[in-house]
Amino acid sequence: MIRRLFGLLALALMGAPAAATAQQAQDCPRGTLDARYCDRDGDLVADTPTDPRQQVDPPVLIFAYTPVEDPAVYRAVWQEFLDHLARTTGKRVQFFAVQSNAAQIEAMRAGRLHVAGFNTGSTPLAVNCAGFVPITMMASRTGEYGYTMDIIVQADGPIQRMEDLRGRLVAFTAQTSNSGFKAPSALLERQFGLVADRDFRAAFSGRHDNSIIGVANRDYDAAAIANSVLTRMVARNAVDPARLRTIYRSEPFPTTAYGHAHNLAPALAANVRRAFETFNWEGTALLREFEKNVPPAQSFMPITYRQHWNVVRQIDEAMNVRYTCR
């Protein structure tokens, strides 16, 4: 069921409208990238189009944060950065509240989204199918970053270890989520021999916060979640941590990747990068919100997709995920 659902997402993206400025398929190195993109330098992300007519320099930059928790909260959290982005690029900047990972990827693929943060698991699909270029992610002042994938259950419930998930209802978030779907699916099958629809029932909540509240309210027996989301919810008193217990914790994964569409004009893309590099977090809503993470997010650090998303690509390979869309 899980692989079939991921396939349905891929099929939906195949039907996404092509951007008017998309590169035409050409004979060039591209690796796993969609046929509309080239990767001549081998960095695994789409090159800027060589034809200036295929580059875009819009008067308004559209920014979208990954669809987790309450969009209204995050519109305010990001406003100071968006003002800085506007000053740095000389553009108006508009916040776009996306409702799903698929909608966010489709928006960039169609040319309606210019700067974005894609969650860990959807970043490879955004890179390969939408021409997303990751450039940065959040980290502590000392360069620490990452989150863990946790399997949570009711604190007073009967589930004590992973093998006890047999026959239970386990919540995932969305098919593109690394911590909410892909990593736990690979883990359950490879390490514990548990296969969805054979050994346990799978449900999709849509978001990490839905999964967390669902376990606390006994809608699900267990859930795979990103511990950073749980930390923020506890800090806001959105959930009582005494009602939950963690029975598994993974090694750290990279966090949300921030970057831009591959076809931004080079000068504009450079200014977008400079906005992330020069943003002063001190005293901002962004710092107040994300320093609750463990480790705290207090700055933007430069990244490369090739290096920092290697572990995620390995999980996708283990699950036979293919980044195909047209």
UniProtKB/TrEMBL annotation:
Q: Name one GO biological process term.
A: transmembrane transport
Any one cellular component term from GO for this entry? ATP-binding cassette (ABC) transporter complex
Q: Which residues form the signal peptide?
A: 1-22
> Gene3D superfamilies of this UniProt entry?
Periplasmic binding protein-like II (3.40.190.10)
Q: Does the keyword Signal apply?
A: yes
Please report the stretch or stretches of sequence annotated as the Solute-binding protein family 3/N-terminal domain.
60-293
Keywords (A to Z) from UniProt: Signal
PANTHER family registered for this protein in UniProt: PHOSPHONATES-BINDING PERIPLASMIC PROTEIN
Q: Which family does it belong to?
A: Belongs to the phosphate/phosphite/phosphonate binding protein family.
Q: What is this protein called?
A: Phosphonate transport system substrate-binding protein
Source organism (scientific name): Neoroseomonas alkaliterrae
